[in-house]
Amino acid sequence: MGDEAKARDDEKRTGQRAPARSRRWMSIALALSALCAIGAAAWYFVNEPKLQRPAPGVDIRYTAVGFRLRKPPIVSPTEEYVGPDGQLVYLTQEQFRAANAAAGLPIPGFDRRIAAALAIEDPDAQSTELASIVESVPSTRDADFTAFAVYTLLSGALAAPPETPARAETKRRVDELIGCRFVPTKKSMLAFPKCSSPATLVPAYVMAGVGAVPLLVVLGALVFGGRRSRRAAT
Questions:
Q1: Of residues 161, 157, 167, the one with CA closest to residue 128
Q2: What is the per-residue pLDDT across 108-155, written as a single tens digit (0 to 9) for each?
Q3: What residues form DSSP beta bridges with 1?
Q4: Element of type H or E holding 27
């Protein structure tokens, strides 16, 4: 028994086995660090695609056509255009130009949807359909040009009279969507919409920083303990 006690004392003195309490707090610290790392990674991958990006430059014709749609039609629609289901819709000249401009977008099909939406006579129903078109553009980076071009084309129609609570709310929702997706650049020709709560990666950075602290403490303790063990052994 005396030899066993002496062996245990030697083992403790040389640092070959860390005390149970030290192992426990190291495990807790590493678990906290891992939890923070997982949270930071999750926040980053969820919110990074939502970060605001510079608004792409669009041809001035999109801006010009969109601006003209702010004025209510004063003539009867006479221009024919094929809708998304193959039906014929009748548009004013400015509406026809908007649909034609959308025909040149990288993502096909928006011209027909825009034509059908602009042909709707009920103002509230029209604004709802126009908003759904803007909202349907994919949120990926490769669709940024299409998203901003569609918004540029339709922002005038969304702001056109008559002003109703439903139309105002629809326009606010669309402006918020575009304002949170893009930031203005020198090429932006519109009065750029604002974003009330833009996506941010700050929480990810905070969690990563918090998680790094216990990890560094554990590493420091291991390095210090290793040096002390080597000194004791010599």
A1: 167
A2: 999 999 999 999 999 999 999 999 999 999 999 999 999 999 999 999
A3: none
A4: helix 20-47
